[in-house]
């Protein structure tokens, strides 16, 4: 017989994290622990208001499947009972962790993958004045990849400030759904001139039909528009890259399915995260192994991470301890 523990945890940030939709000063997450046969499997989800999620709704969703979990339900059954969500992500990853510990193997060994190693990640310049963004980018001038959050106020100045301060790294520009198709068109030359490598979700998901047939000078990644493998057919004519986040897919199980399906359709992969602890990042690094772009700097923003978490040095993530997540 298993037992389930689900709770909310709060991790204050070292500095405000600003995007076009608002500001975060703490990471509010749902933590799941599933105890069975003397072992504990752990998982984390970050409920996201953009998708109508709250801490309370996530905990209620987990509570609704308590009986199934404690009766021994596996990942397939839970994925059928719960919709893709942060709540399902926490449960799915906890089940992966428990399965690995019961088997005496790592999660990567269970799925036939090589162990996760040090991984380059984007480090994010959050939205601010161009001057402040340039100052933040200056501290990242020698990392492999920078991601800049922009809005509609003056995206050209924002991107220029970051690129001037950090001329060497690869660059992702993320408007978080704040642009129009006219702005996407008008900023193409600038994106090329400033050597932008990826434009992430420029249009609102509900309005991205405007991208159908549009030939962008730089690849465009679907973030808020892309959740699970079933979304891909509708996205192929709009985007070249899929940003896979476990909180959107509802766990590692569905993320692996999405990654396989996207590759089969010739789409590029990006791996992203919410502002989170290392318990979210540990399973996401498995997806990152096959991604052209990795954006897993969520824990870097925390004043204090979980014990045994990832470390980040000059834009290179060292994986978390197996004691935190992932088994032997």
TrEMBL record:
InterPro entries for this protein: DgoD-like, Dipeptide_epimerase, Enolase-like_C_sf, Enolase-like_N, Enolase_C-like, Mandel_Rmase/mucon_lact_enz_CS, Mandelate_racemase_C, Mandelate_racemase_N_dom
Keywords per UniProt: Isomerase, Magnesium, Metal-binding
EC number of this enzyme: 5.1.1.-
Cofactor(s) this protein requires: Mg(2+)
SMART domains: MR_MLE
The Mandelate racemase/muconate lactonizing enzyme C-terminal domain, residue ranges: 130-221
Co-factor binding details: Binds 1 Mg(2+) ion per subunit.
Sequence similarity: Belongs to the mandelate racemase/muconate lactonizing enzyme family.
Protein name: Dipeptide epimerase
Gene designation per UniProt: dgcA
């Amino acid at each position: 017989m298993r037992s389930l523990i689900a709770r909310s945890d709060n991790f204050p940030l070292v500095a405000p994290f600003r995007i076009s939709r608002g500001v975060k000063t703490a990471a509010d997450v749902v933590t799941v622990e599933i105890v069975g046969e003397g072992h504990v499997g752990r998982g984390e989800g970050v409920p996201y208001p953009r998708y109508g999620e709250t801490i309370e709704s996530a905990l209620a969703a987990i509570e609704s499947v308590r009986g199934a979990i404690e009766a021994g339900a596996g990942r397939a059954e839970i994925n059928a009972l719960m919709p893709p969500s942060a709540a399902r992500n926490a449960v799915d990853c906890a089940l992966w962790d428990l399965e690995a510990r019961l088997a005496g193997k790592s999660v990567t060994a269970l799925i036939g993958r090589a162990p996760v190693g040090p991984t380059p990640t984007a480090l994010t310049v959050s939205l601010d004045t161009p001057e402040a963004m340039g100052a933040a980018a200056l501290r990242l001038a020698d990392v492999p990849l920078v991601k800049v959050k922009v809005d509609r106020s003056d995206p050209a100045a924002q991107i220029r400030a970051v690129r001037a301060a950090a001329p060497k790294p690869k660059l992702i520009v993320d408007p978080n759904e704040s642009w129009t198709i006219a702005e996407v068109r008008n900023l193409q030359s600038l994106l090329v001139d400033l050597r932008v490598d990826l434009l992430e979700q420029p249009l609102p998901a509900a309005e991205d039909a405007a991208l159908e047939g549009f030939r962008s000078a730089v690849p465009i990644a679907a973030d808020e528009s892309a959740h699970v493998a079933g979304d891909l057919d509708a996205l192929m004519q709009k985007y070249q890259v899929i940003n896979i986040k476990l909180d959107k897919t509802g766990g590692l199980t569905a993320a692996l399915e999405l990654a396989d399906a996207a590759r089969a359709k010739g789409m590029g992969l990006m791996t992203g995260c919410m502002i989170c602890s290392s318990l979210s990042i540990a399973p996401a690094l498995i997806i990152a192994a096959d991604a052209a772009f990795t954006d897993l700097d969520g824990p870097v923003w925390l004043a204090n991470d979980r014990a045994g978490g990832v470390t980040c040095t000059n834009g290179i993530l060292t994986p978390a301890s197996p004691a935190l997540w992932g088994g032997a």
